[in-house]
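ok trying again, last paste got cut off:
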Amino acid sequence: MTTAPRTDGLPTNDALHEGDDLRTGCQGIPSLSARLEPWMQELLADPTACAALLEEHGSPLNVHDFSALARNAAELSDVAESEGVALRIFVARKANKTLGLVRAAHAAGLGLDVGSHRELSQVLDLGVPAGDVVVTAAIKPAPLLRFALDSGAMLVLDNLDEAAAVEAEIAREPLAPPRPVALRLAPTPSDVVGPTRFGESASTWQGWAGSREVSRGGLQIQGIHFHLHGYDPLARAHALGEALGLVDSLRSSGHPVSFIDIGGGIPMSYLDDAEQWAAFWEAHDQQSDDPTDSLTWRGEPLRQVYPYHQQVVRGQWLRTLLGAEVQPGVRAADALRERELELRCEPGRSMLDGCGMTLARTVQRTTTSDGIPLIGLEMNRTQCRSTSDDFLVDPILVRTGGEPSAPVEAFLVGAYCIEAELILRRRLSFPGGVAIGDVVALPNTAGYLMHILESASHQIPLASNVVRGPDGIRRDRIDAVAPQRPWTDAPRD
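nice, full thing came through this time. structure:
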């Protein structure tokens, strides 16, 4: 596909190859300019390559390059090393389903955090040792518990019912060696730590473990785990202090606890410009009630969004946590070192920063019956969506279509037959117009935004996934995985 001549005075894609700003074709109102990895800039500056990828693999397409993964992890490990703290990172598989992520994490010496039977099966099938896998699934059906126990992966017990189910499973093999488990702690709610659905209180676990001899029932308690909502390092420090108390209690009873796992919630920043982030919220809070002029779709406010700009991320965040007091006068780093405890974590989004973007083809330009301009993309709203109300990063427009429209401010809409089928919920400016066939790129979507909520409703296929590497761009084999439950045909005891 060739690029049509520009008639609006803006730079052509040939000019973009010479270093002009890729962001001129599409800007938010106000703008929230994405950070772009060099590989993203290279691909987006090549309209022929973008068009060819969509022609071959369909729209939308998730493009990955995992070269940033090891660098992101090093930000954490370097800080831990400087504090003398042993650290193990387990990348959250649920953040991105590709097998390319598994391979990249394993190659970088990182573990994998899995949340389902299929995730565990795929990771082990790719040769990741069970000792490099932690199973943290929120709900663990019996087949998953059995598989996790048999594999030797670290199994995190969430509650007493789950613990009882595990004991029932291992009672069938009384001569088997003890299986490693961690106990998920629900920290006491306070003005620092909010309530959580995950885990049991320290006193509950103390009572459960105290009624059992060490390794009785084939279980060996090797760690304490917790999972908190949000990104506050001081909340993690507060929970860590409570976890240390549980470790001391369990060790006094003979349980060989060797690590504390703080889960995920390690932040990243999608935007470099703090002033843009502040300006967006000022405009958001003062937006017009007129749906044809409002900043968001029909003026509806955004109530729950990821903090897309943050100053304290990854390494700085971990340094803050390790330097915080977990007991009066005792820093977290010192408490971990004194007990010879390993610190573990399960980041997803912050490890996948810079590792992917989503490309979609423009298929129509229209308006609502009350005059709101719309640009229809060949994708649906679940293909760039997490639990956040919106993805607050400006898309990139790549000229691959025909004659562009007049300059327009519009909303991106998708394929589902739903009135508010919005790809993004904020108004975008296209100063050079939009052409049918143009590519819209959503930058930095690899962490949670591609896969966590994706849907094949209307029988529309899920987005394809490709991985860019030294030997070119190849289809990720996750797209060939059969959708059946992996235990469907397994015999029941």
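cool. The longest helix spans residues 233-252. DSSP finds 13 helices and 20 strands in the chain.
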